Amino acid sequence: MQEEDKLPFTDHLEELRTRLIRCFIAIAIGAAAAYAFKEVIFNLLTRPLIEVLPEGDAIIFTGLPEAFFTYLKVSLLAGLLLASPVIIFEIWMFIAPGLYKREKWVMGPAVLLSVLFFTGGALFGYYFVFPFGFKFFLGFASESLRALPTMKEYLSFASKLLMAFGLAFELPIFITILAVLGLVTPAFLRKNRKYAVVFFFIFGAILTPPDVVTQILLATPMILLYELSIFGAMAFGRRPLGATDDEDEEKDENQDAEPAVKSDGVAPKEDA
């Protein structure tokens, strides 16, 4: 792009403001449409819990405006989901002019795949983790203890878990992009696998409620996705011409074993 074709900073801000307004309008329209089906959406969201609740039990609300504001939040989340194609399009149209041809080749498919992986993570949490987790939590009920989940608490709990699993499933996309840009290699990923496992459990403890079960249920698929990321880095990662994974690994080991060099460029002598 030539210098005279570049837009000034104020024009970029104006374009950003315009695209943000379009996104907010799309979210508002989606939320208004979703509010007409608020009961259906909330019933669908609470189905995993309803199916494991004891017969006769139900989700309750303890405050007079709680049901209204919960339905409002559900409609807003559904509107955000409905408006996601518009949001992704506006973001892409804003950043695409500043990307090189190779970066566009990477980011275009990555955006589409990230949506699919995020959806897959949320569905995994909804169909596999929710039934098992809710059944585990309700197992603490007894003759003297009874579970009375409220609408507000359930929506907060469920939305956080769905978001956590959606973000966790973005891991292969993120690592593959780093490999395409040449920032990581398959040898590096294999070498630091043990640190990644520790990070996944810490990540699960932060994003999930404070219990070991959901932490493990989030960390376990992330470990499997990390292994998938290594294959993605091997398939699409940038590497020197003719280099192999064994050569990359040997290079990393040689760098770790390379002796320290003094500031004058002379390596320190070994002790006799």
Automatic annotation (TrEMBL):
GO molecular function: proton motive force dependent protein transmembrane transporter activity
Chief place where the protein resides: membrane
Gene Ontology CC annotations of this record: TAT protein transport complex
Pfam families found in the cross-reference section: TatC (PF00902)
Membrane topology according to the record: Multi-pass membrane protein
GO biological process: intracellular protein transmembrane transport; protein transport by the Tat complex
Localization terms from the record: Cell membrane; Membrane
Bilayer-spanning residue ranges: 20-37, 74-95, 107-129, 161-183, 195-210
Biased composition (Acidic residues): 244-256
InterPro entries, sorted: TatC
Keyword terms, alphabetized: Cell membrane, Membrane, Protein transport, Translocation, Transmembrane, Transmembrane helix, Transport
The keyword Transport is annotated on this UniProt entry: yes
Record text on subunit structure and interactions: Forms a complex with TatA.
Known function: Part of the twin-arginine translocation (Tat) system that transports large folded proteins containing a characteristic twin-arginine motif in their signal peptide across membranes.
Similarity comment: Belongs to the TatC family.
Name this polypeptide is given: Sec-independent protein translocase protein TatC
Source organism of the structure: Desulfoluna spongiiphila
Record lineage: Bacteria, Pseudomonadati, Thermodesulfobacteriota, Desulfobacteria, Desulfobacterales
Gene: tatC
